[in-house]
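Q: Can someone sanity-check these two? First one:
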Amino acid sequence: MELSSSTPTGRIKRIILSPSFWLVAAMLVSGVLLHYTAQLRAIPIPIHGEVQLTRHSTDRVLLILPVGYAAFALGPTAGLAALAFAFLIMLPRVFLLSPQPADALIETTAVTLVGGLTIWLAWIKQNQEELRQKATARLQAINAVSRVLTGSLETRRMLTEALDTVLEVTGLEAGMVFVLDEKGENLIVAAHRGLPPGLVTTDRGLSLARMLVSDQALSSQVALPLKSKDKPQGALVVGKRGTQHFLPEELSLLAAIATQIGVATENARLHQDVARQLEREKRLGEVALGITSELELDKVLSKVVLIAEGLISADAGLIALLDEQRGTLTYPYLHNLPAELSQVTVSTTEGLAGRVTTTGLPVVMEDYQGYPASLKPYCKGGLKSALGVPIISGEKVFGALNLFTLEEKRTFSDRDVAVVSSVARQAAIAIENARLYESMRSYARHIITAQEEERKRMARELHDDTAQALVALSRQLDALLSSDDQVPERARQQLEKARQLTADISQTARRFSQNLRPSTLDDLGLLPTLEGLIARLSEEERIEADLEVIGEQRRLSPEAELVLFRIAQEALTNVRKHSQATRVVTKVEFGDGRVKITVSDNGRGFKVPDRPSDLVETGKLGLTGMLERAHLAGGTLTAHSNPGEGTTVVAEIPVQ
């Protein structure tokens, strides 16, 4: 439905070119001929068998036909023109030619009234048709806009397509849709079409709206508010070049469309808010999983800064850690900030982080540069706006999480504060866990060190005391058996058994001593000790065992050699006790700053638990011990196995 109407000249031209016009003209000309040709005889027409109409009475009745036809075929205006022409045809005869002027006047008046009634009926019909067409066009226009508005929930795309449809169905040339920003304070251009070049230079709506109103190129404009539940959502401005008078029904249609757009805009915003909230909830879940699954503090806090920035679209961030004993704050974790700022140390009375950790409350600063207690090094970093929240668990404050904008000032919303506070709480829990884990690792180191010292002492005692005593006993028994004294045969047999038992016990003691702490590990190093361990396995268990060495062989620190030996020892013990393997290969790889040891067998294998914490539940205590030793040394350990496919254990630790 186009809002522009046809000009009178155009309507007259269409009527003249219509076949109906010429048919009406022919009928009127025929009426003239019939009415004023005296040679024709009267044509009597009986009415109820008594009254007869003369020929001219018949002519007058026939003149109603072109009037009615013109009114219904060409419109009431054409019908009025035809009636006027017919009246002019009849009028001369009434006053100049009719022998009975009174009767002729009555007949002419009656024909005129009937013709007028016919035109009135045609006018009613035309109005009803126009109303129906307008209602249909209005519904079509509204439906067209509705289809577009329900086709997408992305605001800019939806409004652009809706504006295109509005211009198409109304026949207007240009338009613009403004929407309120999230704070409801400023108008933003969401869509525009057909505007003069160079007019749209910014998305700030108020200045652009003033320019649009004053622009002479669009002299005819209509501006309507976009509302939903009486709440403003923005504005719709449409217009065209030249003068255009907008009719009330046209304004009503545009108002209905504007209301639709307002409702759709609010729905799109609600959808985006819900989608954004769901995404935030999802990200917060990922935060909780990602943070709490990591037990190393450096990795935890680096993740926290990046995740918090992404959740509220900040430009930079940092974590300040509190040293309660010294009353100072350090900034070891930064993102998108100069690295030298990590060397800054301040008291708890300075800076945004100091205020947050002291009060235990979130702080929002739209102008960080204007904050009296702001830190000069950070001001030089170009910080604009800031949001700081405490990293707190219960009543324990660990520090502060600060986020910043670098490009322009921004007022962080309550939702932003809530989201970042949630991340900070998760971070506090993670810091607690990491510190507890570090304490447990330190405790475990002390326990393992004590165990190794005790193993070393027991191995030395077995070797120096027990084994030597057994050797002495064995020699005495040998001396008794080889002496010249007559020893009864029965006693000799008992002495032989005692000598053999002593030899077995001595061998067992030496094996225990080697298992507890082989002296070769301290004296000769890792590789000779592994060679001896593998040789004994091959000799005692009849398993084909090999040792492969890759890289430049060298001695390692006693701690590193002990860790690698214990891991290899436990892996080979598992091969001997559980794998039922016939072949095992131990590989040692020396690299730059690292050493990797791999133990692979062709045994029966097993299903490796998905999580390290499941190792204890499934009874894999040896593998748990290997994993803990590797972690305590700052390394990694992985196990690859499947039933029937053998087992491969790979340990890698950093070395000096």
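And here is the second, same format, sequence then tokens:
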Amino acid sequence: MYKAVIFDLGKVLIGFNHDKMHMSMAKIMGISVDRLKEIIAKHELGTNFEKGLVSEDFVLQTLLDNSPDSFSKVDMVRAFSDIFEDNLKVKNLIPRLKARELKTAILSNTNSLHIKWLKNQYAFFDLFDAHIFSFEALALKPEQEIYQVAAEKLGLKASECIFIDDLWENIEGANKFGMHGIHFQSYAKLIADLAECGIDLE
């Protein structure tokens, strides 16, 4: 019997646009998007920031050091973070799940700047029983450690948890850990997949 439903954040609970992020950041720095991607890759900023291995100040200073144009850190944080939009239909499932006495959680590969931005923009974080962010867990999906952190925070066995993600490799990681993974493709498919697990939300 399932006792918790765990949601990925990006492309499940909220949409995001990486192209918009890269274009906005590159414009502020006065460089091309390709050059920006080279800087991010060279310094492994994306992965290391999401895994909690480097600080916000390190990321922002590295970008500044590689920028021909000066910029304010406030402007860069906005360019980096103002890329999200709410997925209301999925978010509105949370109270319905909790009404069925199911625990809920967010499990996301993300960084501290994006979470600060999102918490200022959206109120839905308080709806969840637990938040598991990669930069705090020091692990990234599909690494097994992050699923273990999620189960421990919820106080449940892996087999009691459903995990929803838009990326198949993260579903495979959850399944390997012992959770039941649901590959998110659409709202209608999610409702059908949850019903197959005995959670009828219609």
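A (reply): Looked at the second one. The beta strands are 4-7, 14-16, 84-86, 103-108, 130-133, 161-165, 180-183. The chain is about 50% helix and 15% strand.
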